[in-house]
Amino acid sequence: MLEHISVCRLVMRSQDGRELRSFRFEDEAPGQEVRAVERRVLLETLAGKLPPNTISFSSRLRSIAWQGKDGTLLELDDGRQVLAKIVIGCDGVNSPIAKWMGFPEPKYVGHCAFRGLGQYPEGQPYESKVNYIYGRGLRAGFVPVSPTKVYWFICFNSQSPGPRTTDPSALKKEALDLVQTWPQELLDIMRNTPDDTVVKTPLVDRWLWPGLSPPPVAAALNGSSSAVAVVVGDAWHPMTPNLGQGACCALEDAVVLAGKLAPALTGSRGAVVAALGEYAQERWARVFPLTARASLVGSLLQWEDPIVCAFRNEVMIPRLVRLGPFLEHTNFECELLEPIASN
Ligand SMILES: Cc1cc2nc3c(=O)[nH]c(=O)nc-3n(C[C@H](O)[C@H](O)[C@H](O)COP(=O)(O)OP(=O)(O)OC[C@H]3O[C@@H](n4cnc5c(N)ncnc54)[C@H](O)[C@@H]3O)c2cc1C
């Protein structure tokens, strides 16, 4: 069982700590589930289900090229070479595989995020609720992810991503300076965060316009080659984190792709290409609208204008936001996968 916290409430506040709105999931969206999971726990749980030595760590891809009829040749930084019939590119937002397939660089959207994990070895004191705090061009949030850890984030407007800061204590100070007069709970959690775990990320996305964006599936032009490549997750559809759906969509991609690809593997090259085509079509319909919606939500939440922010805090959040539609995009029915065969 994946260690997680089942979140039962959502509270929205202004930067001075005033409560703007509070929801109990049970009352306003019965059956709606929200789970907070630490990324490390999720990755270790997924990796733990694989046969030993399936994952080769510290193996950065240096180059990739079609290799005649034999497949696709991947060269790693440590000099190793891998010849693959099917390449699944799940190498994140700066994917070299997506670049090779013709995707443009993701676009910076005008805000950056700080993230961290507050640590409480003796037990964290917070309720299992998501907390959002809204300022002008600046917002923050926190949620417990385990009995001893609390995740927090800050999103702030910035015309450019700015220089890359490598000093961890400077990074944490930069984050604290942004919210120094904000609610004490947030500041306590940030202060309980080890410096070297604070991360700053420029937020980017890539809109998969039909007809303009390359397909996520590529096949070697050489008719006698069986080589194909496909991208999943952020490598294909980086989206801003404003809906908290990027990793969820990457997992959905993986489940759908595995469901389509597994039965095709025993068939011809045509069957494999058709399975990948189905994956591309099915997933595009899910990820393109989410990328657009995440971008729109981000622009609304990062408003700076004092009048617009007052409207958001006094009218929009207290009167117009409904929890059901607010979370409905998180629901996705995945087919169940066959369990992995144990040898
Ligand atoms: C501030 C912020 C908050 C977020 N919050 C949420 C949230 O609440 N919920 C949610 O669902 N999503 C959230 N996301 C999005 C989420 O982090 C990503 O969508 C998710 O990590 C994508 O998973 P992925 O496996 O596609 O890529 P990644 O998690 O980026 O994994 C890519 C992997 O590829 C490897 N790699 C990279 N380059 C190479 C190379 N050259 N060679 C070999 N390997 C390589 C990396 O080491 C890494 O292991 C958030 C993102 C940000 C920035």
Automatic annotation (TrEMBL):
For this entry, the protein name equals Uncharacterized protein LOC109715112 isoform X4
What SUPFAM superfamilies does UniProt report for this protein, alphabetically? FAD/NAD(P)-binding domain
Supply the alphabetized keyword list. Monooxygenase, Oxidoreductase
The record, for InterPro entries, names: FAD-bd, FAD/NAD-bd_sf, MOase
**Start and end of every FAD-binding domain?**
231-287
Q: Please give the Gene Ontology molecular function terms for this protein.
A: FAD binding; monooxygenase activity
Species the sequence originates in: Ananas comosus
Q: Which PANTHER family match?
A: FAD/NAD(P)-BINDING OXIDOREDUCTASE FAMILY PROTEIN, FAD_NAD(P)-BINDING OXIDOREDUCTASE FAMILY PROTEIN
* Any Pfam family: FAD_binding_3
The record's comment on protein family reads: Belongs to the 3-hydroxybenzoate 6-hydroxylase family.
